[in-house]
């Protein structure tokens, strides 16, 4: 490839500044070239005086092809136009150079535009970002983008190089750059994530070998959890889960009945003991291998395990005080750290337990032999102790000095507890007195009726203990997860409830819904502006958040006037003061162009995917217009007849007996119109 020297006189091929004796100047466009980097440099000194560069002469291309001949004709016209500009004595040297530049740029754009028509234009997200988000210094896609208060984006290294040269104005619009941004520029993380997602989507769609995922169906798993030879460790830390014997979904609430036990047709019985947590998982009593709480923060908790994880736990058999999860530093190799280092909050699994408390859901409870402080724990293994209901939850200062989440569990199962001699199950009992509630905070107590409640017998001749039971007073929550594969014992066919897979959301939708959404209104940004702390908002939302606030406020003590104090206006997403920026916020035009291009692409794709609906809508509009026009035509004579009748009523009796001639002449026209 042959390239000329740039504005600084450096060759764009060898990246060196050639000496004057190796520099050639084109007689047509007056562009400097490095002679040693040319494919066909001039051989004699006389040729250098009338030398034309490859862009002007096209001598390096063969003249036999039709395309080359066409381009040579265009180049001949270009040379003639340039010489005409040079011969024009009414123009100054600057005007001649400007006209030459316009002429050459137009000629260069011609072939590329033709090539662009021949090639199919790409409409993916990366092409849009490459078109809109370009650094004004390096002319490449932004790398670690920095946004100035005037709304222009640059690469971080290019911006730092510009500032290092002593420049304190924007390279695009020459607006003054604040000293804090010049010394500590913030990277716009929204643009970084957008570019990264676009590149990842391009690379994933580019082909290559697909990833292979190995999956073992439930019916092919062993009846007992095993450990591979490669990953064998003490305590089955890397053990493989065995077959799931029950047909309940992972988010099933309450006891596991016999109809969900195709192996034994018994269900999970109270007092059943398993060897370890992996075997307990196989029967669905408590699914997590290690975690003590199973549930979802917006759905509720299905089961808990009492295994001595927190020293604040108190176990009284029919009721116990359970401590939530969290508050420990488990980073690095501190996976078994039992020292609490921060407060627990009602979030994640703790929030799941609170949801079960408010809804009154039954929670399955398993006790492990690791709970050494409890008299109700089994001697070995893991035991299922029935279902409990959470009556209250709160937060208090724990034994280690940090706040912990506390839950009051009360047993409510139709089967007797393993440690009791009773024949019948539980009956409603008064709640125990909890002394720590006096100093508790964030107390949550159920106000409405619970979903799982005790139903007494309505037959007066039947003992209460025989017919009364704990039942679902409200429908149990619908499952959101799939059931593990199981085999029908009758015909051996695989029974599977397939979970509806979420459609892969395109990168464009992810960007519009997440990355390009305003952090105030949570909608796609309209007229986006970027603050000095690199957060993006709608211009109207940010101005509305600080509406009515002035930049300064007056201070005074009696008659003495003090100096005006500046008001601090913190960014809605961080504590940085943006008061100076709010005086004249500028729209990030490049980001707005990206958002508009993505929205137009989404609308065009919607039209392409549903052309029939669009045509039906358009047909409906035309039909409606036709009907309206017909009605208007039909209504016009009626309006005229009504006007005529009104005029007749307003006239006197003589006029009625002898109507005017204009009324007589209009009546036949009306009848014809009707």
Automatic annotation (TrEMBL):
<dbReference type="GO" id="GO:0016567">
    <property type="term" value="P:protein ubiquitination"/>
</dbReference>
<dbReference type="GO" id="GO:0061630">
    <property type="term" value="F:ubiquitin protein ligase activity"/>
</dbReference>
<dbReference type="Pfam" id="PF02182">
    <property type="entry name" value="SAD_SRA"/>
</dbReference>
<feature type="region of interest" description="Disordered">
    <location>
        <begin position="100"/>
        <end position="121"/>
    </location>
</feature>
<feature type="region of interest" description="Disordered">
    <location>
        <begin position="465"/>
        <end position="486"/>
    </location>
</feature>
<dbReference type="InterPro" id="IPR011011">
    <property type="entry name" value="Znf_FYVE_PHD"/>
</dbReference>
<dbReference type="InterPro" id="IPR015947">
    <property type="entry name" value="PUA-like_sf"/>
</dbReference>
<keyword id="KW-0862">Zinc</keyword>
<dbReference type="InterPro" id="IPR001841">
    <property type="entry name" value="Znf_RING"/>
</dbReference>
<feature type="domain" description="RING-type">
    <location>
        <begin position="518"/>
        <end position="574"/>
    </location>
</feature>
<keyword id="KW-0833">Ubl conjugation pathway</keyword>
<dbReference type="GO" id="GO:0005634">
    <property type="term" value="C:nucleus"/>
</dbReference>
<dbReference type="InterPro" id="IPR013083">
    <property type="entry name" value="Znf_RING/FYVE/PHD"/>
</dbReference>
<comment type="pathway">
    <text>Protein modification; protein ubiquitination.</text>
</comment>
<dbReference type="InterPro" id="IPR027370">
    <property type="entry name" value="Znf-RING_euk"/>
</dbReference>
<dbReference type="Pfam" id="PF13923">
    <property type="entry name" value="zf-C3HC4_2"/>
</dbReference>
<keyword id="KW-0808">Transferase</keyword>
<dbReference type="InterPro" id="IPR036987">
    <property type="entry name" value="SRA-YDG_sf"/>
</dbReference>
<keyword id="KW-0479">Metal-binding</keyword>
<keyword id="KW-0238">DNA-binding</keyword>
<dbReference type="InterPro" id="IPR019787">
    <property type="entry name" value="Znf_PHD-finger"/>
</dbReference>
<feature type="domain" description="YDG">
    <location>
        <begin position="263"/>
        <end position="411"/>
    </location>
</feature>
<dbReference type="Pfam" id="PF13445">
    <property type="entry name" value="zf-RING_UBOX"/>
</dbReference>
<dbReference type="InterPro" id="IPR045134">
    <property type="entry name" value="UHRF1/2-like"/>
</dbReference>
<dbReference type="InterPro" id="IPR003105">
    <property type="entry name" value="SRA_YDG"/>
</dbReference>
<dbReference type="InterPro" id="IPR019786">
    <property type="entry name" value="Zinc_finger_PHD-type_CS"/>
</dbReference>
<feature type="compositionally biased region" description="Acidic residues">
    <location>
        <begin position="610"/>
        <end position="620"/>
    </location>
</feature>
<dbReference type="InterPro" id="IPR047498">
    <property type="entry name" value="RING-HC_ORTHRUS_rpt1"/>
</dbReference>
<dbReference type="InterPro" id="IPR017907">
    <property type="entry name" value="Znf_RING_CS"/>
</dbReference>
<feature type="domain" description="PHD-type">
    <location>
        <begin position="8"/>
        <end position="59"/>
    </location>
</feature>
<dbReference type="InterPro" id="IPR001965">
    <property type="entry name" value="Znf_PHD"/>
</dbReference>
<dbReference type="GO" id="GO:0044027">
    <property type="term" value="P:negative regulation of gene expression via chromosomal CpG island methylation"/>
</dbReference>
<protein>
    <recommendedName>
        <fullName>RING-type E3 ubiquitin transferase</fullName>
        <ecNumber>2.3.2.27</ecNumber>
    </recommendedName>
</protein>
<dbReference type="GO" id="GO:0003677">
    <property type="term" value="F:DNA binding"/>
</dbReference>
<dbReference type="GO" id="GO:0008270">
    <property type="term" value="F:zinc ion binding"/>
</dbReference>
<keyword id="KW-0863">Zinc-finger</keyword>
<feature type="region of interest" description="Disordered">
    <location>
        <begin position="601"/>
        <end position="674"/>
    </location>
</feature>
<keyword id="KW-0156">Chromatin regulator</keyword>
<feature type="domain" description="RING-type">
    <location>
        <begin position="135"/>
        <end position="174"/>
    </location>
</feature>
<keyword id="KW-0539">Nucleus</keyword>
